[in-house]
């Protein structure tokens, strides 16, 4: 029997899973992450090798039984990077016991496999909003269009939201906007009651916390109707949504149903807190409203699986095995993904 090897290499971990032709996950594991443009291609190669070897062992199969490799990699943004990553992945397969000829290798930006962790149509889009931001669109018969560096720094996910929010605190202190609950939000973990001191710590990179980690509380402040926070989050939601809206329009897909996947930490439910505070993720609600206003044919879906499962789905689609049997394959994916901890 032949199998598909799916891989998701991100900065924090490299995940891999083995899928059979019926959609069942036979083994899964993970190793260190690598961002090849920062950590170097050797680090990427080593991370691939570790995850692949552990996953093949987990599945209790021989490398010769793998008929295809589908990989999503962070930092795969330019054409010249494909050869680099292909070489690193090929070397990692050799080190994991694969022999020539190697199975076909298909490489994607990691947001593409995130898209297919939920989307099942060939006409689909994804908005990945975590620490940073990316978006992609897939149109039947065409290669995926990934926005990548089209995304402006001021819109770059949770990091950008937090930077906008702390600037609101400084604006409020200066009298440029109304008082806001965001002030206490940033002051308390800095162990100060002075906005001037907060500004000093921020500008000298001496804050005792990472402001990007404040994103859930910024969203919660908006849901609690703090005026400055609500305005901030509303504007940010519009800026996130505009990328997937523009990409769908650019690809000429406004007249067809487009499965639109929202994934990433900014779209997750907010953690439970004390009574009286809202648990609504108002950012998600605002992004959905904006997309649906501009793209009436959009069908919003949330990611059910970890992105590595999307790599397997892409492999099944490329093999022609997914068509006509979607429901049964999805049932098997759900059952086995849960067993390997690959459900969102």
Shape annotation: globular
- Annotation, overall tally of beta strands: 10
What is the CATH homology-level superfamily of the largest domain?
Answer: ATPase, nucleotide binding domain
Tell me about the biggest sheet? 5 strands, mixed
Indicate the percent of residues in helices.
Answer: 40-55%
The SSE string, one letter per element, is EEEHHEHEHEEEHHHHHEHEHH
Helix and strand composition category: alpha/beta
The fold-level CATH name of the largest domain is: Nucleotidyltransferase, domain 5
Q: What's the average pLDDT?
A: 93
Helix run count: 12
Termini separation:
29 Å
Could you list some keywords that capture this structure?
single chain; 344 residues; alpha/beta; Nucleotidyltransferase, domain 5; 2 domains; 5-stranded mixed β-sheet; 12 helices; 18% strand
Q: What do these coordinates show?
A:
The protein has 344 residues and is an alpha/beta fold. The chain folds into 2 domains: 3-110 and 305-339, ATPase, nucleotide binding domain (Nucleotidyltransferase, domain 5); 153-302, Nucleotidyltransferase, domain 5, CATH 3.30.420. The chain has helices at residues 36-39, 41-59, 80-95, 110-115, 157-174, 182-187, 195-203, 215-223, 227-250, 282-294, 307-318, 326-339; strands spanning 3-9, 13-20, 25-32, 66-73, 105-109, 124-129, 133-138, 145-146, 258-263, 298-302. The chain has a 5-stranded mixed β-sheet, with helices on both faces. Strand 1 and strand 2 (13-20) form a beta hairpin. Helix 2 crosses helix 3. It is globular and about 65 Å long. The model has no long low-confidence stretch (mean pLDDT 93).
